[in-house]
User: Fold this.
Amino acid sequence: MTIWTRRSPSTKLSEAAGTLDAAGWSGPVPQPGFGARLRRWARRHAFALTVILPTALAGIYLLGIAAPQYDSEARYLIRGRSAAAPSLGGLGDMMSGGALRPSAEDAMGIRDYLQSHDAVASLRGKLPLVEIFRRPEADPIARLWWEEPNAERLLDYFRRLVTVEYDTTSGITTLHVRSFRAEDSRGIATALLDLSEAMVNRLNERLQQDSLRVAREELARAEARLTAAQLAMSQFRERERAVDPTRSAAVAVETIGKLDGALAQARAELAEAQRFARADNPRLTTLRNRVEALDAQARAERERVSIGEAGLSQQIGDFERLSLERELARAQLASATASLEKARVDAQRQQLFLLRVVEPNLAEYARYPKATLTVLYIFLSLSVAYGLAWLLVAGMREHAA
Amino acid sequence: MTDAALPAPARRGTRIGDVLACQLRVIGALVLRELGTRFGRDNLGYLWLFVEPALLGGALGTLHYVVAHSVPGGLNPFEFWVIAYIPFYLLRGVINRAPFGIQANQSLLYHRNVTVLDILVARNLLEGAAVLGALIIFLVFFGIIFGHWPSDPFKMLFGMVLMLLLAHGVSLLISAGAVYTELFERLVHLVTYLSMPLLGAFWMVFWLPYEAQRLALWIPSVHIFELIRDGHFGNLVPTTYDIGYVLAWIAGTNLLGMAAIRRARRDLVL
Assistant:
């Protein structure tokens, strides 16, 4: 005979779960655990928990705790001169001025610069940026969380508060700065505008110095060439003891011509005298002597002009090469001077301009955070998400066995 | 642990994991069934699934390539048209099939575990898989022939998923409407055909003047096409899209669509 015994049910919940089975003693039905109750309660109030509660939290924060943020707005245009304008030469160019037109690439460049670590670093040099982002009136969620943020965190935060938008149709860039004090917003916006102006100036300087540098180098080269040509010329003159061989040659040719003329005349006279004078006539002797002298002189002159190392023709060749070189050097110098002048004129008017269309304003009313709209958005999107989830779960539950 | 203290049989099968598994099994089975009814086993069989969109996309791309319309921005016209056409094929296919979804599978609703949503999800999943397969075939083809691999394949995949979800939401609405009136069956082809130039498949936002761009960006599919192009061409062309906007549309259409399906199920006469 066997005696059946049953253990009395445990009073501890954790044991009860394991020991009680369907066929077991009914015993006292244990109170559902805290977790289960919580889950059932959460299921019953799902909408309140997932939609109403977050919305309410956001509402409390935005309407009650969030510090007002003041918005400062500034607008500017970046304009450049058209580089392709046909040049009319120095003054004409300056008068016509070239068309001013918006320059999209430069505007985008400045926009990217304003949102870069470079701009943040420069700004930190001008303003106590971290202090501005951690004003005592700022609420703990919206303010910069770190007292000494690293550059990346500061940049991220900076990009959240400072927006730069470029409108491709009008060419206007709009700068928005938010911070916890109206003066701070305006200060940052002004500093940013100054920075972008400095950037534009730097770009201009680069452009100008590049073009001026090339022109100056060209001018120096032309000057050196002209000096060298002049020096070669004077050395030639010293060496050859001739100021102008061309002219000496002309003189020599003239002398030869004159000698030839005189010789011809003397010969004619001699021939004439021989017709009627006797052979021992003294006049004939005189004439004959003259013809001989003239002939010798003319021959000597001819030899001097054309023959030998010191010959005039050689000198003339050298001299003409030198004077041609000097002419060329002069022309180059003139053109280099003109282009330097033009580069200087170009440099005098800026290639890029930053035109301030709207100066940064001092906000009177804190436009941010947009509490009502934000709460509405949160409520709407959470409701839609809740609806989707509910429908999905309901669809799944239809598969319940 | 404490759950076991509650009456066990009633809890069985109602846990969310269990019903989800059940739903997934149902959808899987429906996908297989859909495959069978649409393609059969003859001929190329299931391969038609990928071949069909690939053929259409390829034919259109070749056509534009031969006619040699140049695409602004200097893109390869063949790639541009294929990348435009394949996601468009997904959108059009899902929406055009939507009015017939419930009607064709009505008899399945006699099974307690098959719901209208399951049927539609299965059909659209199949469509999405087909088009994704075709897209991958083309991407590999582009990579080998033109030497141009997608600059960010995950963006493309994400774009395709967004496109499928958007099309799914709209198709739910149309399917629900088709329960009440035949109008949807008659008009859906006309509307998808007419809206072809508006959907953003065959032009890019940056081609338009600024004012037109702002109008175009109200259309959700424009964003998705731009996202897919961004994934494929990367920095070759400027693209403009806002994923949050698309997600809002997807949430809205799916919410309304699922609600409409639930309502329509009650009025459905089996």
Observations:
- Strands of chain A lie at 70-81, 100-102, 162-166, 172-179, 352-358.
- The longest helix of chain A spans residues 182-240.
- Chain A has 13 helices and five strands.
- Residues 84-98 of chain A have pLDDT under 50 and may be disordered.
